[in-house]
Backbone:
């Protein structure tokens, strides 16, 4: 059975990119959310095995969204994703409970590795 992924990113292009990268893998995109508010509202229904969370989004940013989800669902596994990460945002991601961090642009090997790491498979 494939692992269910929730992609949270304000760029729909990332969803398509992830779908392409994850073709023929053990992962499937169960939900795509364009912003933090949608991710928070959808988590309970979707119950993904892992979430990829962009940091910079309109409205609630990815770090705050991750914090809110982790407070309500401590079992959640979140991989933070950004092209503009610095040490402080990486530290904050770790502090809110993110399992690992991915830098854009993302390739198949790094994406699958990060998802497996978040699930404790690596």
Residues:
């Amino acid at each position: 059975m494939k692992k269910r992924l929730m992609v949270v990113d304000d760029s729909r292009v990332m969803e398509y990119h992830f779908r392409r990268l994850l073709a023929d893998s053990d992962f499937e995109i169960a939900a795509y959310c364009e912003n933090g508010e949608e991710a928070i509202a959808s988590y309970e229904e979707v119950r993904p095995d892992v979430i990829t969370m962009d940091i910079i989004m309109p409205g609630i940013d990815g770090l705050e969204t991750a914090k809110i989800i982790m407070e309500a669902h401590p079992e959640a596994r979140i991989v933070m994703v950004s092209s503009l990460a610095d040490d402080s945002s990486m530290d904050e991601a770790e502090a809110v409970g993110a399992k690992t961090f991915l830098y854009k642009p993302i390739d198949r090997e790094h994406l699958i590795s990060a998802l497996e790491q978040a699930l404790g498979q690596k």
